[in-house]
Specification:
It is a single chain. The chain is about 50% helix and about 10% strand. It is α/β, with parallel strands linked by helices. It has two domains: about 130 residues, Response regulator (Rossmann fold), CATH 3.40.50.2300; about 60 residues, Arc Repressor Mutant, subunit A, CATH 1.10.10. It has a five-stranded parallel β-sheet with strand order 2-1-3-4-5, sandwiched between helices. β4, α4 and β5 form a beta-alpha-beta unit. The two termini are about 30 Å apart.
Amino acid sequence: MKILIADDHTLFRESLRTLLEAHGHQVVGEASNGKEAVVRVREVHPDLVLMDLAMPVLDGLSAIKILAAEQPGLKVVALTASEDDRSLFDAIKSGAQGYILKNLDADDFFGLLEAVGRGEPALTPALARKLLREFARPGQAKDSPDALTDRELDVLRCLVEGVTSNRKLAEKLGVSENTVKFHVRNILDKLHLHNRAQAVAFALRHRIVEPSTDG
């Protein structure tokens, strides 16, 4: 993957770049604050942005919101030292594809990066449980799933079952990849979500669809 690192600590950025490149990833840019990150993304077009949250000039959350609005297909993952629950919830709600703590073991870190590459959320089991508990609280849902068509529900069910790539979704549903993209875009628009990871969390939270027990 082509990755951009946004963090205000130069030594951390350099160390992370070395680690990523040693594992075969291409670091296409770096940024020392959120504003610079937004500009650099526009210039170098990365597949993934690793975004610190506590940065000067423009914080990471604000940068995530801007990037989610401008480039909804871009994967942005919060990479932070903050274990505050509110930071986790705000990052996901702002459009982050995941939330990785800086004290994570290297093997776990790269496992989560691989998950992001497959379109899955980058969350450790502990953080995923926190997130689902928060989203399960009464009064959180403002968007109704009733507006989804039967075909959109089929697509959402496939996403919940782990079928995340456009090609595999198209094969499973017997439609073109462009049709899949159209349905996914409609799902996200109707539910006011930013990415497929949020769609899966929303579907599970509201029990819109359940994973198949077949096989």
